[in-house]
Each structure stands twice: as structure tokens, then as C-alpha cells.
UniProtKB/TrEMBL annotation:
It comes from Anopheles darlingi (Mosquito). InterPro entries: Chitinase_II/V-like_cat, Chitinase_insertion_sf, GH, Glyco_hydro18_cat, Glyco_hydro_18_chit_AS, Glycosyl_Hydrlase_18. This is Brain chitinase and chia. The keyword Hydrolase applies. One of its GO terms (molecular function) is chitinase activity. GO terms for biological process: carbohydrate metabolic process; chitin catabolic process. The lineage of its organism: Eukaryota, Metazoa, Ecdysozoa, Arthropoda, Hexapoda. Residues 18-409 form the GH18 domain.
């Protein structure tokens, strides 16, 4: 394996053909200090799709409603968030902007009741179209969390398909996108979603590949493990959805820009150790058991001697532990190395791309230093030469890593696919003046990748 250090500043979403969908939790503007995230901080060059989260359901009128009119709208001297995000397409024509309806706090019961009533469904479909068009969005993202659960009913599985089908029929006639956030746990998938049917009507399925474990399990566990000994991991979720009939070209793998936190009565606690039911909060997000990547990296920068960092190979996640003789605080989170490994998995599965929850907990201020181990797991075959970009520095290190890793993963895959063909036609001992078969492999694979990059760069991204 030979790794060549690249000199470019990094790839953007127009350098490849994968989706990079960015959720923006717009309430992050109310966080304190440098964690406050206004839409002015969003970088549209790093995403193909931006999703404004969240709008809510107006049950009385079977319509979409703003959940924060002052932030979302321009009425009564509001800040006009809808208009601001949609307006970013002018300078960034590759960008699609969608509105998400739902989310955890909206619950499930109200959506269950809506979907169960054909007349209410039809009214909502028409009103949703009017709302999306009124504010200039490119489509709607459904975040019902989750059908059949949290006050839902078993019939939600079929009714959700009916709602999606009716929305899709109208949206397609108006050249609008329809997507949905999909839970990643096996039990949720099996009970809540008719995957094959939904795949017919949705443009993309955003798979929420995180929250597999948390303090609620009373054990230290990985938030978003790539692999594990049970069903609670990214690889199983994606393979299960593929087996259920979801086309790879519509699956978008979700990446968490946050970690799960734990408090354990054990010194030097590790994954699997007993923990309290409630984890500690981040200083700005202030949610028990949750800590944004920006909060994590800033804490590690301020107090490096307090924390021990270890890499869990199976989970492909970083584990940060702070201990004394009687107790531990643990954060399990996705570093740039974690992101790169999951991007690599998505590329090898030929998925549509990656989704992030959410950009406002990336290091969007660029306050933390670069991580140098992003690609140490790449290039695991002999005679594969990869051009590795330099460590990402500055703003949005996780988000920038996605496009960089897509390019590296495509390069790796291209070379692996070229190698066997070249070796078959090489003639040992032929005495060619052009060099050995290994040299030919390197040259051909490099040419193939260069052609691929030129085509990708020339293409105009559209859906």
C-alpha cells in the first residue's frame, strides 16, 4: 500500500455524483455563545440538499405551519429564514432546499390520525403543495417519528404509504422532491415502514443511522456503530433495507455530528460497562446524554490532559473517557475518521449518498485543530495508490470530510476494479521498456480516476 499525500484544499459536492444532504436544526440559533447557529453560517457549497428543520402540522386545517414564525417568516419584522435559505440557490445553482415537517418533539399521534383519514390526507396534500410553493422550496421532507410508535397504530404502516403516494403524485406533477427520514433500528423498520412500497414514491430515504445506543440502555455504548455483534449497527440497517427492496440509488446514509454521553460509577469505564440512565449534557446544547461534535472537540482542545481517546475498531467511532478513581464520564462520537469510514461503506454499497444531522453541531466556527488519522483505514490492498487530501482545517471539518472521502473511496474502488484486469493481460518477462505490471496498474488506475474526476466535475448536479 502506498499513500500519496495530496496538496489540494479538498473536494466539494460538485466534484462527485453523491448526495450530501444537510439538515439544519434552526432552533440552534438560540444556543449560547459561539454555539449559536444562524443561517448566515451555513455553507451551501458543502451540501447538495439543505433541509430546513422543522415545520409542524396544523391539525385543525390539515396544513403545514411554522413552528417559529419570527425565525421562519418575514411577517411582523420576522427574520425570514425560509426566504434566506431558499435564496442561497441563486449563487449555488446545484443546491436543492427542502422543508422538513415533523421531528421528535412533534410526536407521532397527530400524524397517525391525519394519515388514517382519506379526506384529511387529501386536504393536507393540497395544502402542503401550496405551502411549499408559496415559500419557494424544492420539496418536502417527511419526519414522522415514527409510524406505529409513540402513540401511533399498527395501521400506520399502510396509511403512511397512502400519504406518501398521494403526496408524490401531486409533487411529481409540480417537479418537486419528496423525501423522508427513516428510523434505522430493525424493530422500527419492520413495524413502521413498507420499504418496497415507500421506495416507489420517495425520491430519497434518509436513514437515521444513529441513536443505536445511549444512556437509556444503562450501558456505555456506541451512538452509531458501523458494525456490532447485534442488529444495532449501520451495516445491518442498510443491508436490511436493501433486502427489503429499497434501491441503493435512493438510500442516503445518515451521519451524526454529535456523540452520546455517559456517566459510570466505574473508573476508566469502557464500551459495555454499566452506566447511569442519564448522561451528562453539552454546555451549549444542554441535552442530557447529548454533546455536539463542536462541544466535544472544544472540550478536548481546552482540557487535553483530562481525556483519554481510544478508537473502537468494530464501531468505527471515537471514545473519549475522563476518569478519577471512582467514576467516569464517557463520550462516544464520530470523528473525521469515523465519517470517512462510513462514507467508504456507502460508496462500496453504491448508495445515493450521505445525510448529516446536523450541520449546526459541526465545528462550524473552525475553533478546533485538524485530525490527522482520517484515512488510516483506507488502501487495504497491495498496489493501490491513493491521493490522500491533507487534514481538514478551518470550518466544517466533518462536512468537508464527506466530499473528500467520497473522492478517495471512489479512487480506491476504481483501482481495485482495474487491478485484476490489468494483471490478467500482463506478460511476465516480456521485457517491456514501459515498466513492470505494478507500474502499469498504477498508471491505468490513475488515468481511470482522473477521467472519472473530470466527468464528475463537468457534470451539472440536478434531480
Amino acid at each position: 500500500m502506498l499513500l500519496l499525500i495530496g496538496s489540494s484544499s479538498g473536494a466539494t459536492v460538485t466534484d462527485h455524483d453523491r448526495v450530501v444532504t444537510c439538515y439544519i436544526s434552526t432552533w440552534a440559533v438560540y444556543r449560547e455563545g459561539t454555539a449559536s447557529y444562524a443561517l448566515d453560517a451555513f455553507d451551501p457549497t458543502l451540501c447538495t440538499h439543505a433541509i430546513y428543520a422543522f415545520a409542524g402540522l396544523d391539525e385543525q386545517n390539515n396544513a403545514i405551519k411554522s413552528l417559529d414564525a419570527w425565525q421562519d417568516l418575514k411577517d411582523n419584522y420576522g427574520k425570514g429564514g425560509y426566504e434566506k435559505l431558499v435564496g442561497m440557490r441563486t449563487a449555488n445553482p446545484h443546491l436543492k432546499v427542502l422543508l422538513a415537517i415533523g421531528g421528535w418533539n412533534e410526536g407521532s399521534e397527530k400524524y397517525s390520525n391525519l394519515a388514517a383519514n382519506p379526506e384529511r390526507r387529501q386536504a393536507f396534500v393540497k395544502n402542503a403543495l401550496d405551502f411549499v410553493k408559496q415559500y419557494g422550496f424544492d420539496g418536502l421532507d417527511l419526519d414522522w417519528e415514527y409510524p406505529t410508535q409513540r402513540g401511533g397504530k399498527p395501521i400506520d404502516r399502510e396509511n403512511f404509504v397512502a400519504l406518501v403516494r398521494e403526496l408524490s403524485q401531486l409533487f411529481k406533477r409540480n417537479n418537486l422532491l419528496l423525501t423522508s427520514a427513516i428510523g434505522a433500528g430493525k424493530d422500527t423498520i419492520d413495524s413502521a415502514y413498507d420499504v418496497k412500497a415507500l421506495s416507489k414514491y420517495l425520491d430519497f430515504l434518509h436513514i437515521m443511522c444513529y441513536d443505536y445506543n445511549g444512556s437509556w440502555n444503562r450501558r456505555v455504548g456506541p451512538n452509531a456503530p458501523l458494525t456490532s455483534k447485534d442488529f444495532l449497527n449501520v451495516e445491518y440497517s442498510i443491508e436490511h433495507l436493501l433486502n427489503l427492496g429499497a434501491p441503493a440509488s435512493k438510500l442516503v446514509l445518515g451521519l451524526p455530528f454529535y456523540g452520546r454521553t455517559f456517566v459510570s460509577a466505574m473508573a476508566r469505564a469502557r464500551l459495555g460497562d454499566v452506566a447511569n440512565e442519564v448522561g451528562f449534557p453539552g454546555p451549549a446544547t444542554k441535552e442530557n446524554g447529548f454533546m455536539g461534535y463542536n462541544e466535544i472537540c472544544e472540550e478536548l482542545r481546552r482540557n487535553p490532559s483530562d481525556w483519554t481517546l481510544t478508537w473502537d475498531v468494530a464501531a468505527a467511532e471515537m471514545v473519549a473517557t475522563k476518569s478519577n478513581d471512582t467514576a467516569s464520564q464517557v463520550v462516544v462520537y464520530d470523528s473525521t475518521r469515523s465519517i470517512a469510514n462510513k462514507v467508504r461503506f456507502a460508496v462500496r454499497q453504491k448508495l445515493a449518498g450521505l445525510m448529516v444531522w446536523s450541520v449546526d453541531t459541526d465545528d462550524f466556527n473552525g475553533l478546533c485543530g485538524p485530525e490527522t488519522d482520517t484515512y488510516v483505514d483506507f488502501g487495504d490492498r497491495e498496489k493501490v495508490e491513493l491521493t490522500i487530501p491533507p487534514p481538514v482545517s478551518g470550518k466544517y471539518p466533518l462536512l468537508k470530510t464527506i466530499s473528500n472521502a467520497v473522492i478517495v473511496a471512489l479512487d480506491e474502488l476504481t483501482q481495485e476494479n482495474v487491478i485484476p484486469d490489468v494483471q490478467e493481460v500482463s506478460k511476465p518477462g516480456a521485457g517491456s521498456s514501459t515498466g513492470s505490471s505494478a507500474t502499469i496498474v498504477t498508471k491505468l488506475s490513475g488515468i481511470a480516476f482522473s477521467v472519472m474526476l473530470l466527468l464528475a466535475t463537468a457534470a451539472t448536479y440536478s434531480f
